[in-house]
Every structure is written in C-alpha cells, then in structure tokens.
Amino acid sequence: MFRYGKSQMQQAAHVPCRLRRQKSEILRAQYVDVRELRVCAGTWNVGGICPPNDLDIEEWLDIDDEPADIYVLGFQEIIPLEVGYMIGTEDTRPVAVWEHIIHETLNKKCPDKSKSKRHSDSPPPARFNPLDYVLAVENELHNESNSDSDGELHRLHNAESSDSARRRLRPLDLACGVHNYNGDKRKRLQYVRGSVSVSMTMHETHFCFVCCHLASGEKNGDELKRNANVEEINRRTVFNPVHTIGVPQRIHDHERITLLGDLNYRLNLSYETTHELISKQDWDGLFKMDQLKKELGKGCTFDGWVEGPITFPPTYKYEFNSEKYVSDATKSGRRTPAWCDRILSYGEGTRLLSYNRAELILSDHRPVTAVYMADVEIVCPRRLQRALTFSNAEAEDHLLSRKEAHLEPKTN
C-alpha cells in the first residue's frame, strides 16, 4: 500500500482530462474535413470621387488569375468629406455606381450561372438596408456539404429564411472620433472615422472582416491616435447576439480575421528622404521606417496580427487622376508618401497568396489587394453519426467493465 503525494495526486487527476481531450480531438478528426476557400480582400480610399460606369477594376479584384470564392471590398470616402454630405444630406448615387461596377466586373468572368458562381445584385440605394444586403449576399456565400466522402463546398442558389441569413452573416458599423462642426460652414468638418465589421460563419468556421478608416496626420505621435482607434474598435465592436450557440460576438472570438482599410500609418522619414528612396525603388529602406511595421513588431495593439511583404510603392498621396505624388505646387500642399492602405490577417488557417496594389489613378490613394487561402472546417453528417455510434458503444463497454469490476469480490 502507498500514499500519493500532493503533486502526484494532481498529476493523476489531470490524466483523465488529457485522455478525454485527446480522444475528443481524434473523434473530431473522424467527421470533420478541412477545405480551402479562396478569399480576395481589397481596400480603396476613393477620395469622394464618383467613378465612371465603365471603370475597369479587374486588376484590383485580381480575377485574371482565378476568381475567388469570397470577395471582401472595403471602401473609404465614397462620398465627399464636405459638411453637406456629413450631416444627413449625402448623395447615395456613388454607392449605386460602385455596386454596378463591382457586379459587372465579377459577373462577366462567369456569365453562365449554371456552370459557375454568379454574384447577386444589390438593392438600389434608395431602399438600402444592411440586413437586406446581407440576405442578397448570403445566398451566394452559404455553402453546404451533404456528402460523407468528398466534403466539397456545394453552392446553393435557393433563397433562405431571413433568420438563417442573419445568424451567419452579421454587419456592424462603429464610429470613432468626435464631430467638431459648430455650424460654421467655413470650417471643415472633422471626419468621424470608424469601422464596418462583418461576422460570417462558413460551415464550422467563423470569419470576421473589419474595414476601417483610422485617424489621419503625419506628425510625431499621430500614430498613437490610430492605435487608440484600433483598440476602440476591438473594444466596442459587439455583434448582435443570435440564438445559435457558439456564434462569436466579438472580433477576436473568430478564427479567421481580416483587417483592411485606410489605416493611415505613415513613414518616420522626411519628405525629401522618402522621395529619394522612392526614386531608387528602395522599398526595404522605406519599410524600415513604417509606423505600422513598428507597431506590429511591438505587439500590444496589433499582437498576433500579420501582414504580407510589401513590394510596391507607397499608396498615398497622389494627385487625382495622376501618377504623380502631390508636391508643394499642388493645392492641397505636399504630403510625405506612405503606405496608408493596408490589409492584415489574424489567426491560424490562413495562407497568403499575394499582396499587391492596383494602378488605378481615380483618387489620391491606390487600391490594395490581398488574396488568401482560408481553411474551412466541414462536418460530414454520416461520418459524424458513425463516430457517435462508435463512441456510444465505447461508453457502454466502459460502464459495463466498471460495473463488473465493482461486483467482483474483494480479496485480502
């Protein structure tokens, strides 16, 4: 006969937990398949410019190579940053034009709906409602597998109930900053920046996409305002609760997260040195002084976030409809070029394929695109049923053996 010490008792108590966890993981592997989805994420600050109807955005959407399964496009400044547009009299026509351009670009690459996916039209801006748009998108995004062998993603074309759609794709917008408009139209309104976030569930995997426009400014210390914006977005973004158990309510509750937008981080370099390095195409030399790179290295605000290698020129600030950066001679005054437009990812199960900018000269920013392959877990119902059947049989055997052991006579 022997007696357990305290540490030995603790170790023994943890053994069943570890065994149960290992068995649970082994059991899950029996009925869960992992498949990849191609995700194209793009961001563009369009500077309040309404585009021509025939604007070619194929380069930005990166569809020459292979169409994506999911497109996430984040815009900033679709309407001009003027007082009249910011106090309730905004013109929604640019929204309709952009939607038309996007749909035309995507659909002309796959005109035969019977053979490939087709992207649905959105409602006109006059009756635009986020949940209406969610329902339109949901019919294209929801995939289902009813096979226990291939686990493929099968596209559905039938409409679903609004409750079902709301459970799987939930939008949320959040404002950061303060209005300082006091009625004097001669003073420019401080733009209230913020974010629009979407929570989306694909099979057993939760995605979150966050499009944001952070505080501007290239003075020393302005990056702290941007950090504060990000922290506020993380803190205040709470998706509406749903009846489905286990659906995430906060950004970091999701397995696959993408942050994109005009993040506004600048270069800690002088105007002259920046232009000198740009003329040499010394992107590495520039990137060493990038504020966001330094914040990613610190952790803190961006702990766990990653970004692909930057191999393209700074995306801001250009003269409108020009390939030239703004200079002293321009009306707006000179700005030090910077990579303001960025796309970051968070979480395992995401593999970056490409990270580029598109040479579209419409606004003072260049659009940026990141293409990922994202893992999606799919439950195969038949295999799940078999796994549960075997588990029940094991449980019965275990209970029977314990009962028999209990009934055995004790011997001295």
TrEMBL record:
Gene3D superfamilies the UniProt entry points to: Endonuclease/exonuclease/phosphatase
Which PANTHER family does this chain map to?
INOSITOL POLYPHOSPHATE-RELATED PHOSPHATASE DOMAIN-CONTAINING PROTEIN (PTHR45666:SF29), TYPE IV INOSITOL POLYPHOSPHATE 5-PHOSPHATASE 9 (PTHR45666)
Under what name is this protein listed?
Putative inositol polyphosphate phosphatase (Synaptogenin-like) family protein
Enumerate the UniProt keywords alphabetically: Hydrolase
What Gene Ontology terms for biological process does this UniProt record contain? phosphatidylinositol dephosphorylation
Q: Does the keyword Hydrolase apply?
A: yes
Determine the domain of life of the protein's source. Answer: Eukaryota
Q: Which InterPro entries match?
A: Endo/exonu/phosph_ase_sf, IP5P_plant, IPPc
Q: Tell me, what's a Pfam family for it?
A: Exo_endo_phos2
